[in-house]
């Protein structure tokens, strides 16, 4: 990541910088959520250089898969294909409302289309998308 990309992350569009890296990300040999998390951590750590990337971040009631520069939470969900997984995710997102930064929800594997529609409705209803300046939550499917 070049100087301008790092500046973009620190000053302006941290979520956009992460999404740009997700576009480049080519996970190989990943079969579990932990595998995807490690692969993404390795990419972010190498590309972001001096920007802190923290795995299994915990502060108060917030438990996130990855936090980048204390600005962006990346929450991974592999195979969002059951009501139980969806309900757990909604619970996590409710906790993340306290977070001052942005959230990137990364869906990997197979995502049930009905659950995705429910998720989109939930995010809209809770005001986590369609923000005045930017969305609180960005959903990215890989």
Average pLDDT figure: 87
Molecular shape: globular
Strand content: 15-25%
Number of continuous helical runs:
5
What name does CATH use for the topology?
Trna Endonuclease, Chain: A, domain 1
Structural class: alpha/beta
Task: Indicate how many domains the architecture comprises.
Answer: 1
CATH class (first level) name: Alpha Beta
Share of helical residues: 40-55%
Taking Cα atoms only, what radius of gyration do you get, to the nearest Å? Answer: 15 Å
Query: Low-confidence segments, ≥5 residues, pLDDT <50?
Result: none
Describe this structure in words.
It is a single chain. The chain has five helices and five strands, in the order H-H-H-E-E-E-H-E-H-E. By secondary structure, it is α/β, with parallel strands linked by helices. The chain has one domain: Trna Endonuclease, Chain: A, domain 1, CATH 3.40.1350. The chain has a five-stranded mixed β-sheet, sandwiched between helices. Helix 1 (3-12) packs across helix 2 (14-24).
């Amino acid at each position: 990541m070049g100087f301008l990309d790092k500046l973009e992350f620190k000053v302006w569009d941290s979520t956009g910088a992460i999404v740009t890296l997700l576009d480049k990300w080519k996970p190989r040999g990943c079969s579990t959520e932990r595998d995807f998390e490690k692969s993404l951590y390795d990419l972010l750590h190498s590309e972001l250089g001096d920007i802190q990337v923290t795995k299994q971040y915990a502060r108060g009631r917030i438990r996130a898969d990855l936090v980048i520069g204390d600005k962006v939470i990346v929450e991974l969900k592999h195979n969002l294909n059951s009501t139980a997984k969806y309900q757990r995710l909604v619970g996590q997102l409710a906790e993340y409302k306290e977070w001052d930064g942005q959230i990137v929800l990364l869906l990997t594997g197979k995502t049930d289309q009905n659950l995705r529609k429910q998720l989109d409705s939930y995010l809209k209803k809770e005001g986590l998308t369609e923000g005045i300046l930017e969305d609180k939550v960005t959903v990215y499917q890989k």
